[in-house]
Write a structure and sequence with these properties.
single chain, alpha/beta, Rossmann fold
Length: 173
């Protein structure tokens, strides 16, 4: 999270974890819903979402996804410093869901976070989720039709604001 106290703005970095090109498709659906665009760089794609004001603070969420998910170095680099994770499953087979959950757990541990309390939402598009997702918030939808994407982003953004925004407003002692 980056806090700009002078402008009263908070920026959250959210990592989109998905199988294959699902992350790219999810960012395109989000950009279309907000009238924005996906910015593509060498190793990542991102969408900046202005969410409006929360208790007088301007809140923006930046969604990032690796352009080449198979390149593990790029995934680790893009994940570093994330404030939350959006796990996108499309279609969700038990094997894919299990691998993504395991990857999420490993990455959060590698960054020194407790994965069970790390802000995250599962966007499930079709199929069976398979493994027990251990209390993670699940938002159903259909990526091909573009349904549920904004609900998933809003659910994660709400959790980020509830968890982190009050801390960012504390005055230095």
């Amino acid at each position: 999270m980056f806090v700009n106290r002078q402008d009263r703005a908070v920026y959250f970095k959210v990592f989109v974890s998905a199988e294959g090109q699902t992350g790219e498709r999810l960012l395109e659906a989000v950009a279309a819903s907000f009238g924005g665009r996906v910015e593509r760089e060498a190793i990542l794609s991102l969408v900046e979402l202005p969410l409006g004001l929360v208790e007088g603070w301007s809140v923006q969420v930046h969604l990032y996804t690796p352009r080449q998910p198979a390149a593990l170095g790029s995934v680790s680099l893009v994940f570093k410093g994330s404030d939350g994770v959006l796990l996108a499953l499309d279609p969700a087979t038990p094997e894919v869901a299990g691998r993504l959950l395991s990857d999420f757990q490993e990455r959060t541990r590698d960054q020194g976070y407790d994965w069970s309390t790390f802000p995250s939402v599962v966007y499930a598009s079709g199929g069976s989720l398979g493994p027990d997702l251990q209390g993670l918030r699940i938002v159903p939808g259909d990526l091909a039709a573009g349904t549920g994407v904004m609900d998933a982003v809003k659910a994660l953004s709400t959790r980020l604001c509830e968890q982190d925004l009050p801390r960012s407003r504390r005055k230095p002692s």
